[in-house]
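Suppose a colleague, Dr. K., hands you the sequence of a protein chain of 155 amino acids and asks what its three-dimensional shape might be. Before reaching for any lab equipment, you can write down a predicted structure in token form. Begin with the sequence itself:
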Amino acid sequence: MGTVVGTGVLLLVMTACGSAQLGSGSSAGGSTPTLGTSTPAEPPGIAPGEIPPDGKPVSLSKVDASALAPEYPKTVWTQGDGKTVGVIGQEGGCGKVSASVLAQDASSVKIELLETLPLEKKMCTMDIRFPPLTVALDQPLGDRTVVLSSRQEQK
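The predicted structure, expressed as tokens, is then:
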């Protein structure tokens, strides 16, 4: 009987400690998507699969995400006159993601998602964030295909 009560108390204490850690992490923004450095004034709180209220979704048939890992978000949208293209990035721990246009022609726009990781080893959170990022095009996206790629770099 004493073992059962002791085990119950231990589980209760461990659960309370875990809840306190989760609460402190979320108040620091651990579970809230952060803004990318690619553009200013991105709407916070966009989750994979969602687009900002002023965004117009790009059909998945016009998105080539074959170079992305299967779990990477593949959400793409345009804003305003179509010269602004938005994507959902993926970053974790001490990494920071940004987006840039590698090339654009009459049939496609190639966008690279770059996660920059610090050179020095340091303590990092074990979270994954999905910040919304935008890039500026020379001409409206129109019927062009968006080709997504990603890579990591240490700086």
